Amino acid sequence: xxxxxxxxxxxxxxxxxxxxxxxxxxxxxxxxxxxxxxxxxxxxxxxxxxxxxxxxxxxxxxxxxxxxxxxxxxxxxxxxxxxxxxxxxxxxxxxxxxxxxxxxxxxxxxxxxxxxxxxxxxxxxxxxxxxxxxxxxxxxxxxxxxxxxxxxxxxxxxxxxxxxxxxxxxxxxxxxxxxxxxxxxxxxxxxxxxxxxxxxxxxxxxxxxxxxxxxxxxxxxxxxxxxxxxxxxxxxxxxxxxxxxxxxxxxxxxxxxxxxxxxxxxxxxxxxxxxxxxxxxxxxxxxxxxxxxxxxxxxxxxxxxxxxxxxxxxxxxxxxxxxxxxxxxxxxxxxxxxxxxxxxxxxxxxxxxxxxxxxxxxxxxxxxxxxxxxxxxxxxxxxxxxxxxxxxxxxxxxxxxxxxxxxxxxxxxxxxxxxxxxxxxxxxxxxxxxxxxxxxxxxxxxxxxxxxxxxxxxxxxxxxxxxxxxxxxxxxxxxxxxxxxxxxxxxxxxxxxxxxxxxxxxxxxxxxxxxxxxxxxxxxxxxxxxxxxxxxxxxxxxxxxxxxxxxxxxxxxxxxxxxxxxxxxxxxxxxxxxxxxxxxxxxxxxxxxxxxxxxxxxxxxxxxxxxxxxxxxxxxxxxxxxxxxxxxxxxxxxxxxxxxxxxxxxxxxxxxxxxxxxxxxxxxxxxxxxxxxxxxxxxxxxxxxxxxxxxxxxxxxxxxxxxxxxxxxxxxxxxxxxxxxxxxxxxxxxxxxxxxxxxxxxxxxxxxxxxxxxxxxxxxxxxxxxxxxxxxxxxxxxxxxxxxxxxxxxxxxxxxxxxxxxxxxxxxxxxxxxxxxxxxxxxxxxxxxxxxxxxxxxxxxxxxxxxxx
Length: 853
Description:
The protein is α/β, with parallel strands linked by helices. The protein is 27% helix and 19% strand.
């Protein structure tokens, strides 16, 4: 591989967007967000299929009239199942509750459908028990069923949204949503946090796969289809006992943040916000979706959870949405002046339900009551929020339906992963596949030959299913935890064996008998929000182990078919060159056998299914081309939006695509971690033994370590840590929320960890410099370097720069794709250090104080 260091002028516009729009940071757009115009200028009145109903309103008003302030605020609190008990539900009568990703009844990953039903029934009965709180209002259970009922082992898992977008089949999408609703109702759950209708503009965003397309039109059509599938048709079986409540999310602009930063800032103008980012709401709300989830992101610096103009003026008053707005995971706590435990600003802005996991729910409940009593929140705003919640509950029949355990689908466990459901999922897999390259018509393959199946994604249902799969990040899952599912290898093996051919599975591509063809299944490891953000689209940047596998097979004269698992388009020019055929399979879910049905003919050589998938995202021409979208004035992707070969088409991709890795200006600069202040996304902790305290909380001592700011070059541009030797202690800098950071480009740039140190008291025990990565949820890896000898050579009481080649950490097993702690300095002895200017510096590795080249 050649590495070309390309500097790019930083312009105001990242790209020109669909519909001739340009996302810019110009003052006009900024002022439009800060001082919004009349909402009716940009935003339409929607013709919402679910019309106001006098009988519903009368019943809502009747219920509201009998409620106390405590009852009302309880309706606005949504805690998580890990943080409340059935007794809490009986005492407070929460309006709703949720299970977050990776949360299960009794905290048991292998909870059965009966366990889910029992919890639903117990919570429901506690909610309607008025013995303590005096309320009989039913509660609702909300869940992230985003590609099937993905929290429950054995459920049918459909392709993630990015694959469904490539299928471009709204009728199929509605069918998928209907099936998802059925499987959810088997477990007694009322409410689904779907569909996600983000229109993704920057593929570095870790939630790219949750978006159907970069084209707002597809997103709008799909949103309407999914809402109908989940809730039923507004003019038919709307919210019957066959349906669940849907949620259009996340309002608004989460797919358009700067640099694809999850929970970041969207700088679109108001017109662009509607034209590009709001079309999913036009579709979904018009179809009658009863809830909207507020987004973590900001619009021109103002967090959406506290943006009254968007939540109230636009969504509720102008567009006419009369359901409720629910927050995202403690999203209210990010509003300026708020915390997880207190946020009147969000209520006043138009948030109707606080999603408040952790034990923050109790002080939030108490503080909100106090804020109403003090006049910080008006009773009229509380009544409006509660009316909206009650309106949806009445429309959904929750006051009249049987309890969760007695509903029509409840307990019908034969519906979980039913064959007819898996058949539809397999169809979705087939239609989502996009053929990017097919030299000399290599595909379809005859099963009557010796097929080698290689790559670490070939027989890995968890990897092919991606994030939001059983666990939040989709990690730490084995094939055994997908009963009834099939890996891609399973499908290939079934076809080849039935036709009398020979199939071999070898992850590393080794073989004893040379095969006729190799199918290599490679791709991204699972990730979800935050953890999936990238700063460059180069696949396996700085590693390229999969490329080595492809080349080794090709060098042996074996035709290579690459099946690429990914949650976004990635720059894979080298991998494309090393493949004779290349299929974008996205994240197909639990029915991997659908892949083989397209790749292979039947035993008689007849095509079973042709490719029909088309790119719903433009494919990048360079590793830095993260912003490339249909409609851009300058539009130069490798493969355009809508591209996709069939078996009748001749392959058009060259075999000598440019393999030069380029990096944008941000990547080429030093990656600052601490320079008197911490740089995003890093947080600093003091740790002593098992104790750990965030420095931002103004904690200056914990156990054996103390901390203070000091001056190096200017006022308070450095810090001093003092260790008293009573415990293993030190300083740790970690990514916020323990999100993983992908620092593989730093490896490709031969970077070193650099910092300035002043030895104020020589250490009396070894000093360790460590990095920590998270390769799976709660599964860490650590690389420890003993820097005692280096420290001993430094002149005391003098600031000096030291640096360590990142390769030294990699050689100890550090995964730079999953880094969450780039700097941890600890010792068991006494010591005192000044620390300043911690950063990652490109091209320093060979000249570092400690080099491992």
